[in-house]
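Follow-up to my post from last week.
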Amino acid sequence: MIPIENYLILSALLFCIGLMIVVIKRNAIAILLGLELMLNAANINLVAFNLEYPERLDGQMFAVFVIIIAASEAAVGLAIILRAYRLFQTAVPDDISTLKES
Amino acid sequence: MSYAFYIFAFIAVAAALGILFARRLFHAALLLLVCFLAVAGIYAISFAEWVAVTQILVYAGGVVVIIIFGIMLTARIPARPTAVSNNKWFAGTLLGLAAMGFLITLFVREAFGVGAVPLSEERFTMVNRFGIALMTDYLLPFEAAGLLLLITLVGAAVIAATQNKNSIS
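User reply:
Got it. Predicted complex:
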């Protein structure tokens, strides 16, 4: 049996790497990759805590719904990125600064 | 069991770090695929088979493909479409037919005398429980997820649809 701390450490590592990707990368699609990684890290936690209560299924159920919502988020996010790309000819959010007072 | 966890964990973290340091977005997407598959392996050894299969189907099969589409459609310099030319027709056909003949004669001649293997009740108990719970205790979230996916489908199509370029400006 793997101690639950190992799951939590793995999840924390993946979450922090995802966070770093979101902050560091400039391309919108790379930011989306980081977001998906963070959602995966959260899912590992849900599955790991479910291991403590094998008679219940709440954690795994939550994980499946998180996966569904992450898929919708990716689809809508990509659609928005494509639309913005068509309008501004760039996929870098920092370059889209129409609303900024300059 | 415990070794498998550490191997999968190492692969997942290494792939995630690879995304962070990848120079090309396409490589980052492929590394994300590796990371998703490793995480699915962790689910599979953590008695969450259903979550593992969903992870592979939805994440590795769906989300990564969407992301790769997005990368291709937002490439600043679109790559030239790869020309697929055929050669070695004779060798390829011979190889394919030989492999097919070998396999079919093998299957016809060799008596796989196992008979129908009864699926044991024990092996699928977790997936059974999951399916029953999904259709009873979690029916409302299940239906809500279906509605959400429909809204996502329509919304993504509407947002990404091609319209007049100066409709928003």
